[in-house]
Write the structure tokens for this entry.
Amino acid sequence: MREEGLAPARPVSVRGTPGTSVKTAAAARAHARAVVDARWNRSARPACEQDVIDLLLVVSELVANALRHGGGLAGFEMTPVRDGIRLAVRDHSDAVPATVGGPGSGPAGHRVGGYGWPLVVRLARDIAIEKRAGGGKTISVFVPIRTTDRPA
């Protein structure tokens, strides 16, 4: 699932501090911010804050959905690449999010779900949902991160 030319920068641990794993949306956001700070914001080309906010929203929604609708968080991985972050969130449910606005969507004015999944679809790229052989699924996305030296 790797984009051509976008090799991982360096492995990043899922653990924010020794002995503490990501178990909540808040911890996932803090970890995401730490990954961005380590990869971009200590360089001469810091990350565009708007893109970091988008990343934090995607992280928060995917983790919250795993906790709320997916039977719990089974895994959380972030990999910085040249132009962004690859994120994978695993949960224990085989149910996949409903498509947004496509064929079979609810009638006008009918609310099928919340705002989280449409937000992920709008902000992330390369969205993939993989059902796991032992049950559950992994939702993988790519969130672009521009540097402040590039125009929006």
About this structure: The two ends are 26 Å apart (CA to CA). The mean pLDDT is 80. The longest helix spans residues 49-69.
